[in-house]
Amino acid sequence: MKQKNDLSNTNNPHYDVLIVGGGMVGASLAVALVALGLKVGLVDAYQFGVAEQPSYDDRAIALSYGSSRIYQGMGLWSELSANTTPINSIHISDRGHFGATRLSAEKEKVPALGYLVESRILGKQLYARINDSKIDLIAPARLEAFKETDDGLIIELQKNEKSNENNDSFQLKTRLLVAADGTQSKLRDLAGIGISRSSYQQSAIIANVSTEKPHNNEAFERFTDTGPIALLPLSDNRCSLVWTHDTQQGSSTVEQTMALSDADFLDKLGKEFGYRLGRFTKVGKRSSFPLALVTAEKNTANRTVVIGNAAHTMHPVAGQGLNLALRDVAVLADLIAHYGNDDAGSDALLEAYEAQRAEDLKNTVRYTDSLVRLFSNDNFLLGHARAGALLAVDRIAPLRKLFTTQSMGINHRQSRLARGLALRKKQEASA
Fold first, then answer.
1. What b/e string do you get for 401-410 counting C-beta neighbours within 10 Å, with b at 16 or more?
2. Residue 417: phi, psi to the nearest 5?
3. Which of 181, 274, 330, 383 has a CA 20 to 30 Å removed from the CA of 417?
4. Measuring CA to CA, which residue among 230, 190, 398 is closest to residue 317?
5. Cα distance between residue 334 and residue 250, in whole Å
6. 148-180 confidence digits (pLDDT tens)
7. pTM, 2 dp
């Protein structure tokens, strides 16, 4: 993809919104803002499409039904949906205990509970839309520092090129600065926003696998005494696997599983997950990473908003991470539509963002964290309690509805994008 703009030779270009981090969250916000006609810049450490860009590899990501509506509001869903695999049902069980919960799109009267899409496909569509817009794509570059002025922030960026021997730096100016640069966010740290971190003493192994029987667009969440195993449906009868390993006694269990031959890996997975889909027949490239709950102490600072993994990095159980981040994007874009023509970095916008995101952030983090801690405990009595809870959710309609709407990402205040509606500028909304 061609580089749209080289801004290093201009004097402090002025932006309404400058987004640091060109992964799925930052790029989604940039696309959402296209409709508003504001001056928007997107900064990333990598050129799009290079192998080093971590956000757009071959991994599959789960988009909730709520996230599909957000992309619909952005005008992306009609193109994206053709490359997704719908999740029509979800089967949740606890290994070694009786009882299960079954969720279905048919019962909820929605087209699907969620969708699977390969991250590289989503990335290409996001950047195709950005490349066709007036958004400035500023890459490769990295944030070095920023300072406050009376009406904005001055951002110092460093060219991030291997051949750069002159240590070239340049400056931009913005009214609003958005940190979408991940769990290790440098911008969050520079803004003086602290974090809370709690290790789960678990690691996740991620891979694509094939099964003997067709998945029939059903997803599985299987809790074991060492953590959950998730199987999510992909095209060509593949499944996206997230296999959690307990590391309380060190990382040897993860290393041992990663070191297994494909045949031994699939055999071990079958013994842990069971044979609802028959035997596992093939596994693709595997990767692993440690799991922790990381939350920012606040989501805003002076003219700065923190979103996505920079604000909240969660356990992958129930697939809430990116979907929560897209709700960050939807609310922030709504507020920029309202305040952006005056001052996108105003105190009023920052205060509204904190207030509007508080409940959803708290509830989703608590929901995910509680699932992990409840189902990663091999206490005998607690096991029977879990079995009863799964049966209750399966049999009691209001409980099932609450659980399902949380999973679909619609159990919260609905922004305009989250209702599948296009953004409107403030004057258009009042006309």
1. eebbebbbbb
2. -60, -40
3. 181
4. 230
5. 45
6. 998 899 999 998 765 455 568 899 999 999 999
7. 0.90
